[in-house]
Amino acid sequence: MTVKLIRKSSSAVDVASKDTSETIVPKSVSQLWDSLTPEVRAALVASELNNVDSKTATSTSNGTHSRNFSNLSLSDQTSSIDDSASSNNVACDSNSFVEKCPVSGAKVTLTPLERAPSNVYAFTKTHLSEKRQVTKTSAATVTTTTKVVSTSRGWRNVFSLPISYDVNMVPHGTLLDPVNSQMLDATGVHSEGYNTRFAVVDVEVDKLYGGLIRRYFEVRGIELRVCLVNGGEADKRSQAVDHILDELCVYKLRRREPFLAIGGGCVLDIAGMAACLYRRGVPFVRVPTTLLAIVDASVGVKNGVDYCCSVTDETYKNRVGSFYAPSACLLDPAFIASQDERNVSNGMGEILKLALVRSSDLFDLLEAHGKTLVESKFEDATLKQAGVSGRIIDLSIQIMLEELGPNLWESKLDRCVDYGHTFSKLLEMVPGADIFHGEAVNVDGFFCIILSYLRGYIDMDIVNRVFACMKSLKLPTNSSDLNLELAWQSCKDAIEHRHGEQRIPLITEIGDSVCVSDITEEELERALELMKKFDH
């Protein structure tokens, strides 16, 4: 219901009353109003305005509830007088509580419904707005004050999605040993006689471990249906998701049956997207087989693919995806040994990122032992015995979980773990570019080191120390594709992706960072010039 209350004042003359067509009242009431003298009408309007003001100023003391809901509601609509009266009666229930709409400022009265009191609420919204208009004539200055009280009603549904998943460190080299039941256990409990399982496996992983994976289930009398997926960045497209969905349909995966995703980060992202879509969500288990996936892609809740837009004719990295948690993660560092040196170094790019923004202890370990770990593929006997290789992986995973855990849906967009992920996105998407994800992150990371130096956040000693560490990890520190046009476009894309601000993380010391949103094109140009002075 909407009611307009109009107050007029004149410095010299009496002003005629407002046309009654602007008030939502029956004709009989309008005629009665017109029959009253101006003095009586003025008194009635003043009384009604005082009532409205006092009601909006009165705080509700009945049953204050500490609930924090998002503003989800039906569209506001004009209600009939009867509807308004009915909803107001509901709002007076002793279980009702009041909150202020953070967007419109309206008073929202919520009443829990009997059958779902913790989830569904009937609401009424009351919004008071005021407008003043000053009109000057030769005879007088007229001020017209219009107060509009509008009400609407609807329902609010509130549901907290429970998120809980275990990131399991598997004893080194035992995941595919039939004696270890962890992988089988992760596929869920099934009725007796249900002897099939489903797995999405990276094509390259299948070449190395396919026999062991199948044998793991065969010795238990279980048939494994394998869906092979290419794990390169170029294959991270919606077609790969469709391929998995087709195979799931043929397999007839049950609604609560977890399937396995075994491979690198791209395969885990693709499989997670398929899991989110199939039957509107089925459980899946991540089994990362690369260092990069172990410390990055496997531990969060993001899934997705790159998107090729038919309108702009451009490809956007991770533009289509979801936040969808795995049912479990199984991490066996023994897989790292099957990677080549470049891919191990690629994983170190993400680990170094975490060290720069969160942990000087992790940086010290990388500085002292990173070169040996890359060259030995984390299999150096001395470092394994001393616990160094395990400590680096553990620290990296813990830091990621500490940063992601409280902010799984990225409601907070100032994120230190976005370090190295501003300029790297476009670097990776340059046609024909020979650069891996962790390598692009590191080039981005060193560029941000230079930006930090130019801003006075760090001195040249720290710059040189970080540069030396990056080189010891055999990571690239520059790219011929990193030019002013790409860098400035990356800042524009960041504003779009991070909701109106750049929010670019820069380190203030090793192990600490700050997000900034005021980097200029001129600043980027100076940083690019300084980059040229280093022996990349």
Instruction: Report how far the terminal alpha carbons are from each other.
Output: 70 Å
Task: Give the neighbour order of strands across the main sheet.
Answer: 6-13-10-9-7-8
| Rg, nearest Å | 32 Å
Helix content range of the residues, please? 25-40%
Query: What is the residue-averaged pLDDT?
Result: 87
Instruction: Name the structural class.
Output: alpha/beta
Poorly predicted ranges: 1-23, 52-92
User: Main beta sheet, described?
Assistant: 6 strands, parallel
How many β-strand runs? 15
Beta fraction of the residues?
A: 15-25%
Compute the number of helices: 17
- The 3D shape can be described as globular
Key terms:
536 residues; 6-stranded parallel beta sheet; alpha/beta
Task: Tell me what the structure shows.
This protein has helices at 27-35, 38-57, 81-91, 182-186, 203-218, 238-251, 265-277, 291-297, 341-358, 360-376, 381-385, 388-404, 424-429, 437-454, 460-472, 484-497, 521-531, and strands at 2-10, 97-100, 107-112, 120-136, 141-157, 166-169, 196-202, 223-229, 259-263, 284-288, 302-309, 314-323, 328-331, 504-509, 512-516. The chain is α/β, with parallel strands linked by helices and 536 residues long. The strands form four sheets. Strands 6-13-10-9-7-8 form a six-stranded parallel β-sheet, with helices on both faces. Strands 1-5-4-3-2 form a five-stranded antiparallel β-sheet, covered by helices on one side. The protein has a two-stranded antiparallel ribbon with strand order 11-12.
